[in-house]
Structure formats: C-alpha cells, structure tokens
Write a structure and sequence with these properties.
The protein contains five helices and nine strands, in the order αααααβββββββββ. The longest helix has about 60 residues. The termini are far apart. The N terminus is likely disordered.
C-alpha cells in the first residue's frame, strides 16, 4: 500500500540561507539617536584655557616673590646707608683732628679720639643687627669688615699719637700708627667693593635711583706708609725735615731694683739691693746713620756724696734704630736721709738741633739694708 506524506514539498533557489539564529529582531518604534561625547574642538579649547590660566597664575606668584625680594633689598639699603653715614661723620671728625692735631691739647686729643672709637664700636655692633635679605648675604661681610677695621685703625692711631705727644719710643709709635692707618686704607677698599656690589643689585632690581652712601677715612693711601707717618710725626714733635737730619733721643730709662713707692714730693723709693743697674734706650730720630754716640750716666748722692760718672759709646746707630745700654758700676747712697740724682745724656751728635729729648733724670732714695741700721754714702 502506497504511503503519503503530509509534508510540503521543498523548493530551492540554489542560494544558501542564513541561520535564523543570527537574525535580530527589529526594534519596535523610532530608532533612538546615537550618543556622542564632547566635540574635539571644545576639548582643545578647554585644555588651552587651563594651560593659559596655569601660566598666568604661576607667573603671578613668581612675580610677587621677586617684588618682595626687591623690596627687602631696598629696605636693607636704607638701613645700611644710615650706618655708613654715621661712619662717614666719624671719618670727617678723624681727618679734621689728624690734620690739625697740633692745635689741640694732649688730653683733648685723647678724649676726642676715644669718643670716635666708641662711635665706631657702636656702628660695628649695629651692623650685626641688620636683617640681611638673601640678595645681600654675600656682600654683608664686606660692610662688617669695614666697620670692624675702623675700630682697630682709629684705636691704633690714638695710642701711637699719645706716645708721640708723651715723647715715648717714637719708632714703635710710628710703626703702630702706620699699621692703624693701613687698617683704615683696607676699610676704605672694603667699603668701595661693598658699595659697587650693592649698587649693581639695586640697578638690577630697577632701583637705580637708590644710591649707596659713601665713607672714606684715608683719602691719601700714601699717608699710611712709614715714610709718610715719620714725616707726620716729626711735624707733630717739631722735628725739622729736610734732605739731612741728625738727632738722637733717650726714649727709656729703668733701674734694678725698680721703684716701689714715692715720697710726697715725687722722689722715687727703691728697695735695698747690693747691686744697682741702670738700663737706657737711645733712638736715632734723624735720617742719617750716627757713629760713636756717647751716652753718659751721672749719679750724684745728696747732700755729701761724691759724683760718679760713667760713659759708654754706641758704635753705630742707623736711622730709626734703637739701642739699649746697661750701666752696672754706679753705687747709690742708702738710707732714707740720702737722695740720689741719676742723670743720663745721649749725644748730642754733630748737626743735631733738637736736644731737649737727649737727657732723662731720676731722683730716688734707696732704703738701707733692713739688717743694718746705718746708712752709707759712697766716696771716691
């Protein structure tokens, strides 16, 4: 019996059909719009704005810092100028006194110079209190050096000048004065270096209209050399200057034993000693070498003693040189009722015109031996 199938016949076009699973169901309704991000131009614009803002903000901060540093520099300059002006005032006083020192008394010169030294010390101290901005940290030491050296320079000048006026060792005084004046020369150079550096910084900060004050203590640097100082000292002491100058002076006298007391009339009191030594210093204050300079020591016991006189000679004494001589063979009278007069004279040498500094005297009493109640008077 024949069998029949209910299935429908299949027809083909020869094309391969797609799998139905791969098909997508069409959405019902209108197709939604596609979602998009910010436009590229807008993003670029935002980035540019942010970059410009950061640049302006950063530059503004840096500008404020620079302006603050410049203002600190300007304030520092104002305070430093006040110190420099104070120092300049002292410098004017110093040069006025130095140039006309013969017109003032010894005590007045000492007082005025001490006042200058005190002012210099105060200025140097005040300099350490300055608030130093970063821009001047490297040059502040120059200002401090200037003020410190002026303290020492004026102090050395004062001590040496008083030695000259007191007719002490002029060779040492000349050397000390020269050292002091050279300190002032160095202080001037330090000041000029400081001023130049600070002015450059002010110009760079657009503050060129601000000027650094000036202060000079030694307008002529040659005056600090020993030759110049020697001529200056000779002018103070009244020594004539010229192509040839002769002159010696006694600049020191001491005894052993040394004085332990003095009487109401100023007579020195020496303790008893079996030996008596006299030491003197003789200086050539001219500019020529001197030969065979005689030095005479005379001891006269009073009232009834015999005068003793001893002579020594300095074979050669160069200009400015000081020689020391010792006399050991003089015998003073002992006892409180015996007064001894010691007189020592150097020169004078040939051609010497100033002789008031050739002689020194010492009036003294030598106590008697504590174990001997008698007094002795030397005789010859």
């Amino acid at each position: 019996m024949a069998q029949f199938s209910n299935s429908r016949p299949r027809y083909t076009t020869g094309k391969r059909r797609k799998n139905s699973r791969s098909r997508r169901a069409a959405a019902v309704g209108p197709t939604p719009a596609r979602r998009r991000g910010p436009a590229p131009i807008l993003i670029i614009a935002i980035v540019i704005v942010l970059l410009v803002f950061c640049w302006i903000f950063g530059r503004g901060c840096g500008g404020n810092q620079e302006a603050k540093a410049n203002e600190q520099l300007r304030e520092y300059t104002g305070l430093a100028n006040k110190l420099i002006s104070r120092s300049a005032t002292v410098g004017t006083q110093f040069n006025t006194l130095k140039g006309d020192v013969k017109a003032v008394s010894r005590d007045d010169a000492a007082r005025k110079l001490q006042s200058m030294i005190d002012s210099c010390k105060q200025i140097a101290h005040d300099s350490t209190l300055l608030k130093v901005p970063p821009k001047t940290a490297t040059i502040q030491p120059l200002l401090q050096l200037t003020f410190d050296m002026r303290v020492g320079g004026v102090d050395k000048y004062r001590s040496s000048l008083l030695d000259v006026l007191d007719k002490k060792n002029s060779s040492t005084a000349i050397s000390t004065m020269s050292d002091g004046l050279f300190d002032l020369v160095v202080s001037d150079k330090s000041m000029q270096s400081y001023r130049g550096s600070l002015q450059e910084k002010l110009n760079a900060a657009k503050f060129g209209f601000e000027k650094v004050a000036d202060s000079v203590y030694m307008p002529k640097t040659d005056d600090a050399a020993e030759a110049g100082v020697r001529e200056y000292v000779n002018g103070i002491s009244g020594v004539e200057t010229g192509s040839e100058l002769h002159g010696v002076a006694l600049v020191g006298l001491s005894t052993a034993p040394a004085r332990v007391d003095k009487t109401s009339s100023g007579v020195s009191i020496l303790p008893y000693s079996k030996t008596f030594t006299v030491k003197v210093s003789v200086q050539n204050q001219g500019n020529q070498e001197e030969d065979n300079v005689a030095v005479v020591a005379t001891l006269t016991p009073d009232p009834t003693g015999t005068q003793q006189k001893k002579t020594q000679k300095i074979t050669r004494l160069k200009a400015g040189e000081t020689a020391t001589m010792v006399f050991e063979d003089l015998i003073p009278a002992t006892g409180t009722d015996k007064t001894n007069l010691l007189k020592v004279t150097a020169g004078p040498v040939a051609g010497e015109k100033k002789t008031d500094n050739n002689t020194m005297e010492l009036s003294f009493i030598m106590r008697s031996d504590s174990g001997d109640t008698t007094t002795t008077t030397p005789t010859q």
